[in-house]
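Lecture notes, unit on binding sites. The following record was shown on slide 14. It pairs a sequence with flavin mononucleotide.
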Amino acid sequence: MEALQTIINHRTIRKYQPKKVDPKILNLILEAGTRASTTGNMQVYSIIVTTDEKIKEELWAAHFKQNMVKEAPLVLTFCADFNRFNLWCERRDAKPGYDNFLSFYTASIDALLVAQNVAIAAESFGLGICYLGTTTYMADSIISILELPKNVVPVTTLVIGYPSEIPDLTDRLPVEAVVHFEKYNNYSSDLIDEIYAEKEALTSTKELITINKTENLAQIFTEKRYTKKDNVNFSKSFLEVIKNQNFMNNE
Ligand SMILES: Cc1cc2nc3c(=O)[nH]c(=O)nc-3n(C[C@H](O)[C@H](O)[C@H](O)COP(=O)(O)O)c2cc1C
């Protein structure tokens, strides 16, 4: 039940106390991370723990100068990593065939599952977390800051620390909106209206629409936050990173 409470009480924390995290707690959190399921138990991921202020400052610049990167004592970068596994295979006269897109995707899934275990474990100790989507936007800079070798790609980042704010729980679509029993039940227009009605009626939504000068909430996503132009540009740079890191040999 405690695990469930931790999960249900999750809120992203964007303001942190300067208080450090006890290394024993950090170790337990990291160990909880490694208990995540991974493909074939290959554990094709790595976690880079950054506490050094100078390196954090470099990461902060790469992560669009989001302040929590400097404020939170811990920055954990989760990487899809076939480097270690390939080195092991090669030393054992086993020929690795993991320089392709599927292997990148496999390793990314592993890394993300580990990250979410780490997030929940951290929250169970009263710590706050924030994921950073800027990891994929700025993967090339992060690779150079953290000196990631070939066959390693950063896929997400968590900042972790003691919260100095307790934000309200954010809204969610109703569970029925995202769950399909037995087979996919496609959405009629009326159902779309119904599913998004609560979110659209929130005072916070109305405030956002005023600030962003759009007609509705959906347009804030398409015109302001996640535009086609940005998505195409970041897709191109991320595909280049995946290629440079040796994961696009699909022949
Ligand atoms: C993959 C991923 C990337 C995210 N990137 C950012 C980010 O760069 N900056 C930020 O402030 N929040 C980021 N978030 C947090 C989301 O905005 C947040 O989870 C969402 O608004 C729901 O709020 P909640 O986590 O408090 O329930 C990210 C979340 C995920 C899962």
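Take-home: DSSP finds 13 helices and four strands in the chain.
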